[in-house]
Amino acid sequence: MTGLRLDGLAALRDRTEARLAELVAEAPGAPMTLTNARLVDPAADRVFEGGVVIRDGLIAEVFEGARPGEDCGGRHLAPGIVDIGVKVGEPGERHKESFRTAGAAAAAGGVTTMVTRPDTLPAIDTPETLEFLQRRAVATSPVNVLPMAALTKGRDGREMTEIGFLMDGGAVAFMDGRAVRDTRIFQRCLTYAAGLGALVVGHPQESHLTEGSCATSGQFASQLGLPAVSPLAERIGLERDLALVEATGVRYHADQISTAGALAALARARAAGLKVTAGASIHHLTLNEFDIGDYRTFFKLRPPLRSEDDRMALVEALAAGEIDVVGSFHTPQDEEEKRLPFEEAAPGAVGLETLLPAALQLYHAGHLALPALWRALALNPAKLLGLPAGRLEAGAPADLVLFDPDTPFVLDRATLRSKSKNTPYDLRRMQGRVLATWVGGDRVFTRDAA
User: Fold this and answer.
1) Fold adopted by 79-369+408-428
2) SS3 385
3) Region 113-137: what's the mean pLDDT?
4) Which controlled-vocabulary keywords does the entry list (predicted)?
5) pLDDT digits (tens, 9 = 90+) for 262-277
């Protein structure tokens, strides 16, 4: 009996010591080590074996080689994605997407920071609506949320918003999500934003030409009988915006470059020393105009899908560093707005959860190495917004994604965590899955073994 009691006490002691070790590991300030990973460092432009030490929500150390810690199984560990241009349905369209569901989709997609658009109902154009958005985001989203605010009141292009007050309230950039038609109003907005050092995100399209269109002009659109717009509309819109940027000196980011014709104008602006950057949608980098051939409305986007020549020009520009940022442009639409004739259906696609596997298509095709891809997904958007994220270095936020770039799967839209399921990648064979995501050192997603 004595021996049995001693054995029981020993077992109890072991369990107690194990629990104490767990409590110490979970205590504030206690370091956590992720080891046996292939680290993707976009700033240093390399992939190497090693790990990171996390303390107080920050990366305390990045090391090469092996150490004791949580084994990442040789999978890739990279900075979390910073996704600029995410649409969330709050306020006004919570039935399409909430901060809770968008945050869950983001975490499952390796997106640790969502930079949200102001095209809500009502628009994010006052400090009060901005404060509401921030409260909702903090209360329900597991990932970081940074809001953009509208450039004009109601996004109607007639009257400038209180840019200074909105900046004080936490707005990181200003956009209407569509072209400001009145050039005089737009110039006034840019002049005021330049004086405050604000970032303006433009949508470079000539709105009169694009109005009513749903496809890119050419023989294919004519065969389909769809109202179409010339790719020239993007170049005209961009040239106007860049002329105003030159006149005002504002910091300007073109949200979605989608045509080859716009790249030359962009290059001239940069050569002239203008403070200009550019982004591209993952859909325009991986799909083309032929994907709308069966009138499937999940492929209806704004701007519309372009030619294969345009797509490849964008991919080459991304590889050359001429396109700075790649985003999902997550735009949830409910079934009722998509289950309509192509011309009448709402444009847009969800993308928070599909951004990474779609972007890895460019890696597997040999167009970009992983560090270059992560510059566009994480480092460059963080730099654009003045964030310390997007880096694997001591002092950076411990916003991380663990992924396997080679895992194959067939995407089933029904499994997406977004409320809306309007993805053009439904039933497509994809390669690359997120295994875990950390935000500020806290694990916010772990993929269940299957």
Assistant:
1) TIM Barrel (3.20.20)
2) coil
3) 97
4) Hydrolase, Pyrimidine biosynthesis, Zinc
5) 999 999 999 999 999 9
